[in-house]
Specification:
Number of helices: 2
Radius of gyration: 16 Å
Distance between the termini: 15 Å
Structural class: mainly beta
Length: about 180
């Protein structure tokens, strides 16, 4: 995990990970949230397709010193879903992920046994060059992303969006390997 996340890429280099989505589920409210988020670039899985191919590419963002992540999720029918985000070393927690249309989340990071866990501390908008922290009641709840090492160059990716009142909104489990 340390090697994968501390890897610095040159200006024209890309790290690739191939795999498949094992499971995606949404509550009714979670499905609605994913659809509404299309207006900011669809950062949540839109479909409940399971056992479909997935590819992740990571490249450096020279301007910010962070990394751009592109996730491509296959579908049973229709075009794949493409999700873009950028992780940057900035803000009060030291790490932020920009999701699209000026929306981002400050992340806290913790290390467990063979895993890294990213938790949303808060969400924010970038307006006129300033960060505007959104009140918790305006957000979808807590986003938790786990990258867990499975050995032999493989890792699990788990995404959970959990609302304090409505519980689990979105869950996705995918498994990848280094290319």
């Amino acid at each position: 995990m340390r090697r994968r996340f501390s890897k610095r890429l040159g200006a024209s280099q890309t790290a690739l990970y191939k795999g498949h989505v094992v499971e995606t589920r949404h509550s009714r409210l979670g499905w609605l949230l994913a659809q509404v988020c299309r207006v900011i670039g669809a950062p949540l899985p839109l479909y409940r397709d399971n056992d479909v191919p997935a590819v992740v590419s990571v490249s450096e963002d020279a301007q910010s010193g962070g990394q751009c992540w592109t996730r491509i999720y296959g579908r049973r029918d229709g075009f794949p879903q493409v999700i873009h985000s950028a992780k940057r070393f900035a803000g009060p927690t030291g790490l932020e992920e920009y999701l699209g249309r000026k929306l981002g989340m400050a992340l806290s990071v913790s290390a467990g046994v063979n895993e890294l866990v990213f938790r949303s501390a808060h969400y924010f908008l970038m307006l006129f060059g300033r960060r505007v922290k959104l009140p918790h009641w305006m957000g979808p709840g807590r986003t938790v992303v786990r990258h867990r090492d499975l050995g032999e160059g493989r890792f699990a990716f788990d995404l959970d969006v959990i609302h304090p009142l409505f519980g689990e909104l979105v869950h996705q489990h995918a498994e990848f390997q280094d290319v």
